[in-house]
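User: Hey, my collaborator sent me this sequence without any context and asked if I could get a structure. I don't really work with proteins. Can you help?
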Amino acid sequence: MFTNRVGDYFLTLGFFAIFYTFGTLDYATVFSIAPYINTNVITFISILLLLGAAAKSAQIGLHQWLPMAFIKKPNWIIIKINFNYNLKFDYNVY
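Assistant: No problem. I've predicted the 3D structure and written it out in structure-token form, which is a compact way to encode the shape of the chain:
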């Protein structure tokens, strides 16, 4: 879907910006160098990562695919699989 690709794009740009700015993607190194970096750069990276996460998780404005992800009603095969799974692993019947 388009919104998922938008999320991929922004997350990729955010990670490339982190790598370009800090030279690594290691959290310990990034957080230790972050206080010495310009706040505008940190804000730009944060916005890229936020937009990517919002698009990937179907937040408001980017949720067109969400209604299509649900089925209208479960069929009998899914009901039977779930019932047998519950008997086997939750109640140790088998």
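In plain terms: DSSP finds four helices and no strands in the chain. You can pass these tokens on to your collaborator as they are.
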